[in-house]
Design a protein that fits this description.
single chain; 150 residues; six-stranded antiparallel β-barrel; 3 helices; 20% helix; 38% strand
Length: 150
């Protein structure tokens, strides 16, 4: 992931109860057929406890410098504890995102509760569609080139 983007997630649990979270790292597979998302179990316990393989998932990526935003609709393929590479990815993401947000005037105190790279879970997602969600004309439209992976 080259840009510093905020990562928010949404899924639903039993009875279609919504569950939200914030990602602290993202890795797109070389062939773009999988997406690994890192989420803190300590920060988002309700979302993690509701995880079910096959569940619908939405991942929203938003650049705080210009509000350019995309939403990925996906299915949860598998999930489990993060490994050392995942932890390194999350630490790098949090450093970059923290610097970006500090430069925009967000305080370190505010950030302390937003970006928590602790007790990480890796969610492997299968992207199904991508939509532009930048406010203004074109918001909600399918992103060109996005499609259902093989």
């Amino acid at each position: 992931m080259l840009r510093s983007v905020m990562i928010t997630t949404a899924t639903r649990g039993p009875g279609s109860r919504p569950a939200i979270g914030r990602g602290v790292g993202l890795r797109l597979g070389e062939d773009r057929s999988i997406l690994d998302l890192l989420v803190s179990r300590a920060q988002w316990p309700a979302m993690i406890s509701d995880l079910r393989v096959g569940a619908a998932f939405a991942v929203t990526l938003s650049d705080p410098t210009d509000y350019q935003t995309y939403q990925i609709k996906a299915r949860l393929a598998e999930f489990g504890d993060a490994d050392a590479d995942d932890v390194n990815l999350a630490d790098s993401y949090v450093r970059r995102m923290t610097q970006t947000l500090l430069e925009l005037g967000v305080t370190a105190q505010q950030l302390a509760c937003w970006l928590l790279p602790r007790d990480l879970v890796r969610l492997r997602l299968i992207p199904m569609a991508v939509f532009r969600q930048t406010p203004g004309p074109g918001a909600g439209m399918a992103h060109a080139g996005a499609g259902t992976p093989a």
